[in-house]
Amino acid sequence: MTSAVSPTSQEQQMKDHQLSPTSLQAQFAALLDGHLNQRSDPDSAEAWMRAAAVACREVLAVRWAQTQQQDKVRTGQPRVHYLSMEFLMGRALSNALAALGLNGVMAELSRKAGVDLPALLEAEPDAALGNGGLGRLAACFLDAFANLGLPSFGYGLRYENGMFAQRVQEGRQIEVPDNWLVNGNAWEHLRHEIHYSIGFGGLVTGGAGGRQWSPAEQVIARAYDFVVPGHNTARVSTLRQWKAEAGETLDFGLFCRGEHVASAVHRLATERINWVLYPDDSTDAGRELRLRQEYFLVSASVQDMIARHLKEGRAISDFAKANVIHLNDTHPALAPVELVRLLLDEYGFAWDDAWQVVGNAVSYTNHTLMPEALETWPVQLFQRLLPRHLEIIYDINDHFLAAVRAKFPGDESMVRRVSLIEETGERRIRMASLSIVASHKVNGVSALHSALMVSTIFADYSRIWPDRFVNVTNGVTPRRWLEQANPSLGGWLDKQIGHGWRSDLTALASLNEVAGQTAMGKELQSIKFANKVNLAGYIRREMGITVDPSSLFDVQVKRIHEYKRQLLNVLHVIARYQAILDAPEAEWTPRTVIFAGKAASAYHAAKLTIQLIHDVARRVNSDARIRGRLKVIFLPNYSVSLAEKIIPAADLSEQISTAGTEASGTGNMKFALNGALTIGTWDGANIEMAEAMGVNNMFVFGLRADAVEALRKVGYDPRLYVEQNRQLQKVIEAISAGEFSPGEPQRYRELVANLLNRDHYMLMADFADYVATQEMVDALYISPDMWATRAVRNIAAMGEFSTDRTIREYVVQVWSQQRGQVV
Question: Which residues are identified as catalytic?
Answer without folding.
Answer: 367, 558-559, 564, 666, 670
